[in-house]
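Internal ticket #5521
Category: modeling
Description: The requester needs a full-assembly model to guide mutagenesis choices. All entity lines are attached below as received. Residue total reported by intake: 353.
Assigned to: D.W.
Attached entities:
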Amino acid sequence: MSVMKRVSLIFRAKANKALDRMEDPRETLDYSYQQQVEMLTRVRRGVADVATSRKRVELQMNSLQKEVARRDNQARDALGKGREDLARAALQNKASLQGQLNDLQGQYSQLQEQEEKLTLASQRLQAKVDAFRTKKETIKATYTAAEAQTRINEAFSGISEEMGDIGLAIQRAEDKTAQMQARAGAIDELLASGALEDHVGGPADNIQAELDRIGAGSDIDAELARMKGELSANAPRQLEANPNGGPSVAEPTDTQAADQPQDG
Amino acid sequence: MRILGEGQYQLDEAEAAQLAPLDLELDAAVDRDDEAAFRTALDGAVRLVRTGTPLPPDELAASDLILPSLDASVDDVRKLLAEDGIHLG
């Protein structure tokens, strides 16, 4: 038998089974209505949960985006300082972060799509539940138990199918949300601890440390060079002032000469 | 007709007749575990049903045929057919 027919029969069988459990068919109406209202609540909560997940992913995407930009700056900085090895490491790290970011973007659109679908589903269910309530009151007021049976069956199968459909959708949404929450929690933790950088793309913070070191190092080199310049400018005058030459003057001059090759 | 996750549509007889071969293809694809053939058949079936008239949301009627949602996989359909995958709340 065909797939579509089988699925519809399965839905119908489920509805019939639920109907069979009821002694008075009119009892079914109230019981079913109660379940529908519960389902509506569940769907609305589902929409809210998916929205929360989506917003959380959005925040994480922003954080990752900043990390990506930071790695990019590091790479430029490293290149500017002639450290291609560091620039390469920073770019490798950037690529890993970008991968994570792309992944999150995919998750984000999935959540967005699910949110839209669930919102529509909840509107559909609301309309059906309202229709059911009207029908339920009419049936209860107008018909005897025996007469009501067929009408109840119709209304009940119609609403049951909708409930089954939405039940599947909400189940998927709940699974997805739980999965996203676990994932998002892990990423939050990594971002907060700064471990993401090390975790994702190797020794990222070593890159920063090395750049800082070079930065501090070049400051010191510059200061040294300035001092040496001052000293060499002063030295001849000092020698003139002390023609006999004292060890106190000669020594720094020697040191300066020894340092010179390192400067270049 | 219902497309799971989308709602119900009313199809005239000619349209409904076009659905039958696609349904058979779908069935064969599930049996063979042929994801590609399944996708083609499901895509065709969903497109066809969508050309129908959407049933007003306040109409309470059971559908003659129920289509899996467009993003369903062979595996999803197997679960659906395993019966215990559906809870009516």
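Resolution: model delivered.
Comment from assignee: Chain A touches chain B through 44 residues (CB under 8 Å).
Ticket closed.
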